[in-house]
Design a protein that fits this description.
This protein is an alpha+beta fold. The chain is built from 3 helices and 5 strands, in the order βααββββα. Strand 3 and strand 4 form a beta hairpin.
């Protein structure tokens, strides 16, 4: 099954790239997609810095699951598209991808910053 979600986030592509290009974060996102409680080891299959990041589960569970993240500057933000291939046939996979976008879009506090 394939799922796709899109959203424009109010962050720059380099800022989003810095968050997304983190193997530990990719492993947690993969676990969310396949519905397991712990991180799943992943293998990066495509990396075009600032534009495309794709990875797949390196072992069961979910060995055939894949996630691809595409970034494109758009006005005052960045259009983010997440496509996933997986075996889950329920809305939980789409919810996992929405959580991925929520995490990328959430404000991060900076040291000594206000708010």
């Amino acid at each position: 099954m394939q799922s796709k979600v899109r959203r424009t986030l109010v962050k720059s592509a380099p800022e989003l790239w810095e968050l997304a290009d983190d193997k530990a974060r990719m492993e947690v996102w993969m676990a969310g997609l396949v519905g397991t409680p712990g991180p799943i080891p992943v293998e990066v299959t495509d990396r075009q810095p600032g534009r495309v990041l794709a990875w797949r589960a390196a072992e069961p569970p979910g060995a055939d699951a894949r996630i691809a993240l595409e970034l494109a500057e758009k006005g005052l933000g960045t259009a983010v598209s997440v496509t996933a291939e997986h075996r889950r046939a329920d809305a939980a996979a789409d919810a996992a991808l929405e959580r991925l976008l929520d995490e990328l879009g959430s404000p991060r506090r900076r040291p000594f910053g206000r708010g």
